[in-house]
Amino acid sequence: MILAHYTELRSAGGMQRMNRHCAVVLAELGRDLGIPCRILSLNDAAGQHELRVGTLSAPFEGFGRNKLKFVSASVRGARSAAITCIGHPALAPLAIPLKMLNPAIRCWIHIYGVDAWRRLPYAARHGLHLATGIISISRYTSERASKVQSLQDAAFHLLPCALDPGMAGKNGDKRWETLGEVSNQRLLTVARLASNERYKGIEDVIRALPHIAARFPSVCYDVVGDGDDRSRLEALATSLGVRDRVHFAGWVTEQDLASHYRQCDVFVMPSRNEGFGIVFLEAMQFGKPIVAGRHGGSPEVVEDGECGFLVENGAIDELTSCLCRLLGDDDLRTRMGLAGFDRVMNLFTFGQFRQRLREILLSDSTLRLPPEDPPRS
Q1: Continuous segment of H or E residues that includes residue 136
Q2: Which residues pair with 220 in a beta bridge?
Q3: Given the DSSP bridges, would you call strands 186-190 and 156-158 parallel, antiparallel or unpaired?
């Protein structure tokens, strides 16, 4: 069977979304191969659940943060598993008992961003060394993890994140529906406002606002997301005299999030630590130009000078210049927005993600799809 392990599947976040995408593709692959697929989630509520992504679905079992039951279920499934997918480097130590119980098991471990950029404990590093292959969302993450975790001999496979199929299908190829909105010189960031994620660059945008407002008096900044750093950011906006321009929306529904994307003129998140940045894809799907950080995996998503601009995190003057250039040039915003839309459709759809993950797993001789029935005469 296929045995899969995840930290969580149902909560918000880019990593959780990728977990869901992987889980439904694994379940589909199991059905195509005629073998069961058992999906385990450590932090989701205890009991049986079902995921749905587009037309694909996957049953899974949550363990309510009970590590003992989670590991026990994994060990019980080890002997009959042809492959196991481990959805986070924090779970990489599972590879050790699984390989001891079943030396033939093929083990794939997913890595994302900061989770693999810092030196991991020995058990996690040993689990990574035992892996058949390491699946990474960006080349940057692969390169950094290879150095930090001493994985120079590991087999890395690139699997970029993707849009949910529902979001990718909302506008189809009707790009004009996401462009040409009435401009109010509106900036947008979508991110967790967590004190341990200050690298997102929201503070930089707030610090740039007084300078931008000198040229564009009606500029405003929408921040979608919440967290324990929100009060500090609100206080910063107040101290800089731009509190009336910064609108903290908190977490919003999917419908309201789509409205925020449609109504903004520029999406900005000058982060220094993104492993990838799914929110960039979302904004590009709505035909919006991007200002992102020239760091981490962001340059693999946002092509500098084509679908937006890349800036140094903390470089307020550079950030101000790029935002003012976009706000002051309707044609440039439209051109970059369309280029971003095309980039998403060409590289980052769920269909492409599904095909790539299946190719990675089926490249291993352990798994073979049954031959198709010959056509009837």
Answers
A1: strand 133-136
A2: 186
A3: unpaired
SS3 221: strand
Query: What was the pLDDT predicted at 370?
Result: 53
- Host H or E run for residue 248: strand 246-250
Query: What are the angstrom distances between the C-alpha of 11 and each of 15, 111, 191, 199, 259?
Result: 10, 18, 14, 22, 21
Q: Find tokens 């993707």 and name the residue.
A: 162
Q: What are phi and psi of 222, to 5 degrees?
A: -95, 130
- CA separation for the pair 262, 282 (Å, rounded): 10
- Supply the Cα-derived Rg of the chain in whole angstroms: 22
Residue 269 structure tokens: 């998140």
Task: Tell me the per-residue pLDDT of 140-180, one tens digit each, with 9 for 90 and over.
Answer: 999 999 999 999 888 999 999 999 887 644 444 444 444 44
Scan for tokens 């190719």, then name that residue.
359
Specify the pLDDT at position 175. Answer: 47
The residue behind tokens 């760091």 is 295
Strand, coil or helix: what is 308?
strand
- Residue 119 confidence (pLDDT): 94
What tokens were used for 200? Answer: 């997102």
Domains in the chain: ranges and CATH: 2-162+350-362 (3.40.50.2000), 166-347 (3.40.50.2000)
List the one residue out of 156, 69, 168, 76 whose CA is nearest residue 116. Answer: 156
Tokens for 248, please give them: 């903290």
User: What's the pTM?
Assistant: 0.87
Contact between residue 130 and residue 99 where contact means Cβ atoms under 8 Å apart: yes
Question: Which stretch of 7-16, 199-208, 365-374 has the lowest confidence by average pLDDT?
Answer: 365-374
